[in-house]
Amino acid sequence: MSEYANYTPGPYAAENIRITPTTLADGRDFFYLDDDPEYVSSAKTRELNDPRQLAYRFANQLNAAGEEVPYAAPEMRRDPLTGDWIPMATARMNRPITAGPGATAKGNPLAARKPGDPYQDGEVPDTDYNVVVFENRFPSMVRVPGRSDAVEYVDGNPLWEKKMAAGRCEVICFDPDEDGLPANLPVKRLRTVVEAWAFRTAEISTMEGIEQIFPFENHGQEIGVSLAHPHGQVYCYPFIAPKMEAELQHTEAYFEKTGGNLLKDIMNAEIEAEERIVLRNHSWVAYVPAAARWPLEVHVAPVRDVLTLDQLDDQERWDLAEMYSALLKRGNAFFDKGDGLGMDLPYIAAWHQAPIHDARREHYRLNLQFFSFRRAANKIKYLAGSESGMAAWISDTTPELIAQRFHELGPIDIAD
Fold first, then answer.
1. Over pLDDT 70: what percentage of the chain?
2. Where is the Galactose-1-phosphate uridyl transferase C-terminal domain (predicted)?
């Protein structure tokens, strides 16, 4: 395994997962994470050469008039009313979409390469893989070499700050099966995905200008997924995202008032209350939060105090893979269409981990927030006036009813 600046594999990964780095034709970073013993042992090796004839990712471009102009780097502007930074990435308008009624491409850029296939713009150089990670070709945020990220002003007015959105966006493909579902992946493969989260968290935390690392998964056409393939992403913000900022304000205020950790005390209170606990193993507890917003919402917390994914030990990473597998399976069974088969649940799985440099990080705690806006087998929750206009949430159910349904789907304790 290659040496990395900040990532050190644990005993399992050192023996059973091989990370192979390469560079795509346009200069983006790419990593294979193999759990297949033949690749781990080096009996087989991965294809490292990207055969596409791609221009350098930051090369000058042609505008509508055919004139050469600099690469259209994403910028971000600060909303003076809320203080939020809003990234703006015009290049994303041209990204391929292969899922849903707005599909613009027939090929799948996340699939392994298929020799002889007319579509040859896939991101994976090899004809097979286990798990891969690579920089997004159409990033919402990216650091462009030679570009300053100093603050400037829209129209020269100090009301409106702007600067380069000098973050980073990566894609994690969980499996080569284009038609597969994350819920159906074996726990061993999800263990490799967990290692990918930890690997990228460790490495990206040393990169210039990154303040928060956010691994997440969008799943399902209704969520807005543009590529139908089992995959997730890692957004690396050059700022603290608004939801994290709100959480940090509350966790810090709680510490100053009580000396305790708010996230730990919430977990312990849920354990004591018992009613909303839905899954549990040696290292993790999953519960429906007492003030859940979504019609299906589960938070997953480590038993041990952990700040970030790369701080998890081997047992915690295995137990997380087991927990995530059980959560996805029960999520798919949550809504009954009348045939007892459940459904492919649209969901977002969002990792909240301590920011990199903010001093308030020490009073935070790693947690996963899993939710779906589906409220019945044939209905979804639309975010209308109150939610979208005022961020004032109106729940269509209660946390106790959500937990009750999970209890019908299987035992709480899933440890071997």
1. 96
2. 248-369
